[in-house]
Amino acid sequence: MPLCGPLPGRDGDLPHRHAAARGDRTGAPGGLPPPHPGGGRTGPAFGELSGPAEEGGSPRRGPFSALRHRRFAIFWVAAAVSTTGTWLSNLAVPFVIFEMTHSATWVGIGAAAQFIPNVLMGPLGGAWADRFDRRRVLIGTQIFGSLAALILFLVVASGTQNPLLVILPVTLQGIFGGLNLPSWQALVHDLVPREDIQSAVTLNTMQFNVGRALGPALAGILIGTLGPSPAFLLNSVSFVFVLVALIAIGGGARRALAKPRISALRSFGTALSYIRRQRGITVSIIVSIAIGILFNPVFNLTIILASTVYDAGGLELGIMTAAAGVGALIAGPIVASSKHPLSLVTLAGMLGVGAAVLVLGAVENYIAAIAALFVAGAGFLTVIAGVNTAIQLIVTDRMRGSVIAVRIMLYTLSMAVGALIMGGIADWLGVRESLMIAGAAMLLLGLLLLVRRDAGIGRLDDPQDED
Hints:
The chain is an all-alpha fold. It has a single domain, classed as MFS general substrate transporter like domains (Growth Hormone, Chain: A, Up-down Bundle). The chain contains 16 helices and no strands. Helix 3 crosses helix 6.
């Protein structure tokens, strides 16, 4: 299942970057330099994790340092396998629906059928992440997610031409995904110490893009040779890897913080109130929503673009959709070792995504389209890693699961809205025109955030709320 995650400090002193970030607080250790006049985190967004070791002999921190922790490494490998299975299905579902209906709107409906239940289950998933053992929550959601994927395989293998029958198990997957994601992201926070937060967040986003690179390529081969149904069967099997990993990491993962038993809706409302008071988290979520509306539908539109503009077969389609994942994989270590503030890293990613999607809609050359998707994937990784890291570094531990759930809900809802809007525009004006509109809108938003950097995107560098 897709994810991107967090972590609290358990291992003593904070690294130089985080201590420097809080230099405006009294009692900062070690005579650290004074804060930037604007306050917040003033050190590099990722760079000092790969810089020299701190006093006291702590190990060097690099973009892959989180993999030194055994439980995280086990979970990460299993997640990469499972995410590859998810992306097998993610390519095959819109392909099957478009083959049945030849309608971009129906493809958008299929995407919304997964995203909307995901949103509706978000408050409950967030409450579970803060209230129960996250590992046990994940074991349950992974079992039921695997069964939903198996039902989807059986439906498609039956040869049905009714898209509603395909959408039903997709909806079930959305339900279990909504319950799954808050515990998934919060669990990662339990598997490594605070000084490896940025490494773990970026590695999580990278493993998502490992699947995004391998899954569509494998799905394209399967569709071109055996048809789409084996992709759904392999997705169902891929859940087993995460189940085995969850059993292997055992009780080493920290349980959720003890909290009063309150309703999921009340927990959701409390998280919204908290987010409104934390400007950095608010800006992070706004950027996530923009990505969800303007970029995430590009995946489905690429499938339509390949069929209607390039007359691509299964393998060519797989290469196009894998290009974004490959771009993200290559960008991951670069982003993790960047010496620039989170705000600038995220803004650069937004501008890169906007320009690449605009080019994707404008060109009619297959190789140029692959290059544009490659750049778009790199920009997507940069933005998502940036906003996820900002949230994980700002949020107080007691609100972590609920805030993550709200972010996931709003991001997922934006994907549903974007799928419907962009699918409708593609049927109305054309798929290339819809891509150019999305790219231009993302560029415009990025430029607006650049103009208002200190009041907007600059808040991603805010210090942690230690309430």
